[in-house]
Amino acid sequence: MTTTTAEIGGHAWEHAPIGGNYLNEGKGIKSWLFTLDHKRIGLMYLISGLTMFFIGGMLAMVIRTQLLVPNGLIFHGSYEAYKHYNQVFTLHGIIMVFMVLVPIPPGALGNFVLPLMIGAKDVAFPRLNLLSYYLYVTGAIMAVVSTLLGAVDTGWTFYTPFSIQTETYVVWMVLGIFLLGFSSILTGLNFIVTIHKLRAPGMKWFRMPVFVWASYATSIIQVAATPVLGVTLLLLVAERVMGVGIFNSALGGDPVLFQDFFWFYSHPAVYIMILPAMGIVGEIITVFSRKPIFGYKFIVMSSLAIALIGFVVWGHHLFVNGQSAEWDAIFSFMTFFVAVPSAVKVFNWLATMYKGAISLTTPMLYALSFIVLFTIGGFTGVILGALATNVVLHDTYFVVAHFHYVMMGGTIIAFIGGLHYWWPKMFGRMYNETLGRITCVMLFIGINLTFFPQFIVGAEGMPRRYATYLPQYQPYMIASTVGAYIQLAAFVLMAGYLIHSLVRGKKAAANPWGASTLDWSMASPPTTGNFQHMPVITQGPYHYEDMEYDGRLGGFVHVEPVPALAGVGSEH
Amino acid sequence: MSFNLLHGESNLIQMMSLKLPGVLAAWGLPHSDAVTSPDVQFLWDFILGVAVFFTVLIVVLMVYFSIRYHAKTKNQVGDHGHTHNTPLELTWSIIPLILLMIMFVLGFKYYLNIDTVPSGAYKIDVQAKQWSWTFVYPNGGISDKLYLPAGRPVRLDMTSSDVLHGFWIPRLSIQKDVVPGRVMSVWIEAKKPARMWLQCAEYCGSGHSEMRAPVIVEPYAQFRKSVHAIADIWKQNGKPLSLVEVGRKLHVTLGCIACHNMTGAPGGVGPSWKNLAGSQVHDINGRIVVADYAYLKNAIIHPGHLKVKGYPRGIMPNTFAAQLKKISPNGRALDALIAYINSKSKYANQQSQPPELRKSATPVQPPVKLKSPPAKVSGLPTAALPLVAKGKLLVQTFGCTGCHSPAGAPGVGPTWKDLAGSPVTLTSGKVVTADYSYLREMILHSGKLLVKGATPGVMPGTYGAMLSGPKHPDEKKLKAIIWYLNSLSDHANKASWPPGGGGN
User: Fold this and answer.
1) Burial class (CB in 10 A: 0-12, 13-18, 19+), A286
2) Distance (Å, rounded) from C-alpha A341 to C-alpha A346?
3) CATH architecture of B240-357
């Protein structure tokens, strides 16, 4: 895959400005495999992540096809067949959570954009950055190996004691995820140091774009929560290999302890997934409303609040397993509390649109889709956060629908929006805008058709992780499957026009959208060192009055001396 | 805070609340059959109402702004003076906060009702395993269906024998995980008779999606009849059972199966029932008798009178006579049990069957002579042979063979066949040789040297005081048992023999 990109880098941009860019400076496979450039590493993350997303997505199609009929269309008739279904949904969950949703938004977009946004030449520790990527690849390969040896059938949560008893290759898979966790920690650490130490002169904390703030909040969670996952997974390995008896009730251990440990990471991990998405949406909405983001400080503080409160809500995954009513109450309370900053963000985005000058480009449509889908996902999360309603909806399709609205409708939609937003900067090419908008609408319809019926079927009583189901749920399941196929068609279309854009796309201007953040201040694609001159920042990140559209360039240019971007003409 | 008080308050709040539009009620939860359901339904409606209101508001504003403030030219910019408004932002922070806190308080309040088991509830035990549910009623009746009385609180005490399971009856608004190693309790009060499904909600492996059980809510009088019928050994689903079928149920409910297996495997606490009826049996005095109807009857109701050789007196409880008489004073329950024993024997004949079944004449087969396997004593010092016999008797008295098979069959504890003198892996991973001191330690302090794969605390810790200590300074019985263990093992050697070579 990296070879393909290298070839693109080698041949596609003969007319790149000022002698070249990060894609063609340095040729051959080695220049990619050993690159220290944050943009190339970001691109490698992107390609790896899209590959994993493709595999996870195909597994999702298998799941949806299976559930077309109550007895199962693909796997039916025996426990052995159901086990294969269980392996499929387990792999779908593991791939999507640990190999797509957690690592890819920071790894691909964060890596590419974050140093550009703060006026840095690279991240603080480029070699560590490359190590993160290779840990990610190694972890993913171990997961593939474990799948070939004997695919895990525990669900992505690895709940004990089933994960101790099953004969599938849990240890391989868990060690793979352990490595993925290390990758995540190192990326978070790198970003924190980068943001603290490498901001350009004048880039005060409250002059950073909201995406940088979101990445900062994400990184805090990655560094603070992921070690707990690592320890938990190692304990699970010890339990399986040595029978230490921590989680195994047959040896005097406690299965619920595993759930506490697991969710201590995995709930904050939900915010690892959603915070970068919120940052992306903030950037897109201000640019395409051509108006400074409304309530910048509230948005920034809400990111930090979500990151911090997110650490103390994990117990809401344990409302039905014997946790005391007092703890239930505390975790429920904190869960409601964390909903407030999310609500604040949505209102602030809307207020940004108010009296703006809105253009409904592809990235903007994705951002608006995000707001709708995230709102539905968020409110159903409130229903699940309330104790009395939780105990009737726990472990049902209602939960499945809720987190797919947040993860697919939230993170993935925002990620794709971000990809379309930064695509011209990444590859120096424009894509077909009409097809982009059509695809976004298709995805929006597909996601709602897939997951909305699951709310109803869950409330009606269908538990999750079922290979077969009672016949009365079938109409909802059929609707859901049709929705999934619509999503598949949308993704095929998207792959088509994005590949076309790489080969034949119109050349992108330095600033095609008229954004005012630093990432659009250099040519598209950027050169290896990002900035010709060290930028000096004198004002906040969003201001649209000082630029004008130039039809010949197909992008925006500054019309007056701009204090924000005045170079000092020297290397730092 | 009493249950009723809380319940009354929540009704008050419901009465004061706004009536939600009918369109929302149309998509209500289908969880309307428990006394706690109205609370849950109310909370659901309340949150859903707020959610629909705000979602519609957000979408309408979004669409309106997109149209109203659509950029006419690329160079048009938004109102740069409109960057923040602290009072406005505080408003839309505080209003959601207040609404969310109301939801939290209601959720917790109703949850306390759901979570607090009322006293005096009818109690049913629930056993979950991969992949079935079993319900045990207070009268001892066992069923794979959950019967519930309408209008009465029921407490369910749930255990799992393998992995996590999730007890979930959607229509009764209740879900609870069944965690292995714990007793998980929930309570239910169904409002009216209905039929519904109990489904496993917590993923438990391959059969997860088919781990469900029918739930039958009945008026209390009917419920009592149903539970009585479950315990009624004579019928199944209202249909009378054959005598053999009744006997099959009895041997489970009376617990016969714990000591008498149906497979013919040696090592049971009592003789196997396989091929027993109609065969020749060595009685306790070594005489050969035929296990006919009269013999079987006597053996059950007077266990002290007729014993099989090798199975000492006093182990089998003498309570069965009374229990069987309680079930049927005319002795038909006893006959059912004997009919079942006959059904397991190829030697069953007119004489061994209970009178009721004798008309269906089965060909009489000649009694077959029992072949008793010779004890493996080769290689042991002759002086020890009487001790081997004594040890064999002792292990049966103590009931050791209930868990440890002398013949190599898997059991609760490790088999004794070829144990003495062989290597053993402990839970610590350490490999030791089962020599005399190991065997002695193992019997006296079972928890100390646990074999890999075994569960601590299963083997009673009472043998130490029975075999050693101040009352038994010379440990004669202990040594006899260890001699017996040696006789069962091809690996027995001087190190695994008790000291003294049987001379003491």
Assistant:
1) buried
2) 9
3) Orthogonal Bundle (1.10)
B79 touches chain A (CB under 8 A): yes
Nearest to A465 among B84, B203, B427 (CB): B203
Over range B67-85, report the average pLDDT: 90
**B85 vs A295: CB contact, 8 Å cut-off?**
yes
State whether residue B10 sits within 8 Å of chain A by CB. no
Question: What class is the B122-231 domain?
Answer: mainly beta
* Number of other residues whose CB lies within 10 A of the CB of residue B380: 19
CB–CB contact B48 A383 (8 Å):
yes
Q: Compute the distance between CA of residue B78 and CA of residue A358 in angstroms, rounded to an integer.
A: 8
Strands (E), A292-421: none
The answer, for A151 touching chain B at a CB cutoff of 8 Å, is no
pLDDT band at A570 (very low <50, low <70, confident <90, very high): very low
ipTM of this complex prediction, to 2 decimal places: 0.90
Which residues 349-408 on chain B approach chain A with CB closer than 8 angstroms? Answer: none
Q: Which of A36-45, A487-496, B285-294 has the lowest mean pLDDT?
A: B285-294
Residue A571 lies in a domain: no
Among residues 108-137 of chain B, which lie with CB inside 8 Å of chain A? 108-112, 114-116
Query: Residue B280's beta-bridge partner residues?
Result: B290
Q: Is B102 on the interface with A (CB under 8 A)?
A: no
Residues 436-455 of B with CB under 8 A from A: 452, 455
Say if A387 falls within a structural domain.
yes
Which phi and psi (to 5°) does residue B158 adopt?
A: -115, 140
Q: How far from the centroid of its chain's Cα atoms is residue B286's Cα?
A: 40
* Separation in Å, CA B240 to CA A247, B27, B229, B235: 47, 46, 11, 4
CB contact under 8 A, A392 and B76: no
Distance CA B391, CA A347 (A): 83
Q: Do B62 and A344 touch (CB under 8 A)?
A: no
Sorting pLDDT into bands at 50, 70 and 90, what band is B325? confident
Q: Domain check: are A414 and A448 in the same one?
A: yes
DSSP state of A554: T
Question: Is A267 among the domain residues?
Answer: yes
- Between A322, A336, A392, which is nearest B104 by CB? A336
Is the pLDDT score of B436 beyond 60?
yes
B264 vs chain A: nearest CA distance in angstroms? Answer: 30
pLDDT digits (tens, 9 = 90+) for A489-506: 999 999 999 999 999 999
Burial annotation A406-423 (CB, 10 A radius, 16+ → b, else e): bbbbbbbbbbbbbbbbbb
Tell if the CB–CB gap between B27 and A348 is shorter than 8 Å: no
